[in-house]
Amino acid sequence: MDESAIPKDLASVFRIIEEDKDDMLSWLKELVAIPTVSAELSHRKDIMRLIEQTQEKLKKHGMHVTLEPLGDQNLSDGSKVPYPPLLLASTTHDAKRKTLCVYGHLDVQPARKDDGWDTEPFQPVEKDGRLFGRGTAHNKGPLTACIWALCAYLQSTGRPPLNVRMLIDSMQEVDSQGIAAYLKSSKKSDLLGGIDYVCIADGVWLRPKTPCLTYALRGICHFQVEVTCADADLHSGIYGGTVIEAMPDLMYLLNSLTDAEGRIKVPGIYDEVLPLSHEERKVYEGIDMDRNRTNTLGQEQNTAQKDTLRTRGQECERAAVAVGTSVEGAHWSSGDKAVIPARVVGKFSIRTVPNQKVQKVRECVEKHLQEQFTRRGSPNQVK
């Protein structure tokens, strides 16, 4: 863009952002270094520390900030702990201006170097003009950019061209626990009223230089399968080969979910999936997607992925359901362990697409797993 064509107020904002970019990067590094893992209760203090830092940052630039309590989280042992509060911030309201709601979150997924990271995930590292660390892209980086842009407006002109409300979550990675009940409460039912636009910078780019405008997201259903074979863990040297172990049963069930090409084998699960429309196919054909990007992740493309249009449709939330699994109860740390676990738990999720009903997906999966376990003929218990 010709710099002379940039409005004076906006040019001033750009100048402030450029002058302060080193400070912005330093602040982002501070945020990334705080392990705000919402899935692990041990990091709850880290989450609170980052909420307080963000609160002070916004207050410093003249925004009205409140921390809204979200109630208590019920733990498996019957105890309760408070949810991290919802951070709300807003500029001075002008009834003549449109209102923009900016959503972001401070929490991140768990990460360890031995997950495949080249560096420690909570020790941010700059390399070749990029910052590596958990949360740099999802979502501390984009949220930092939004906050810095807003602060630049406030510093330059005293107010942005829109009324701005910020809704900053700290439990997004665990389904934003506590927020739904908060928003549905009678006294907070008007929180989202009067909003004209919503900005969520929490997605991915298709290529390093190709941004992506997301118009919809897939849904998700979480499942948990538990198999028990004994009252307590058993020594494999004594009981190996004499008991039907829980782990093979669990692997059998998880393996029954998909075929070698990643297609769901659960009967009925695709019944409600709508085919790609003509208009959608035209949109997908024009998407600048890197066909070989899975190769950079250490995986060659399978047959389904080699069909470029199918891949685009999958990633654009049509005609595909994704499954991810994890297992609890097994030995995972370094060294060997001669133990047969008494109980193992498999967790997986299914990404739902337009027209699929969560209840139907749940019924199909539960029926399939029960039928598979019956067919296996195991004496173990499953639930």
TrEMBL record:
Residues 215-372 form the Peptidase M20 dimerisation domain. GO terms for molecular function: metal ion binding; peptidase activity. Keywords: Hydrolase, Metal-binding, Protease. The keyword Methyltransferase does not apply. SUPFAM superfamilies: Zn-dependent exopeptidases. Gene3D superfamilies: 3.30.70.360, Zn peptidases. One of its GO terms (biological process) is proteolysis. The keyword Protease applies. PANTHER family: BETA-ALA-HIS DIPEPTIDASE, CARNOSINE DIPEPTIDASE 2, ISOFORM A. This is Peptidase M20 dimerisation domain-containing protein. It comes from Rhipicephalus sanguineus.
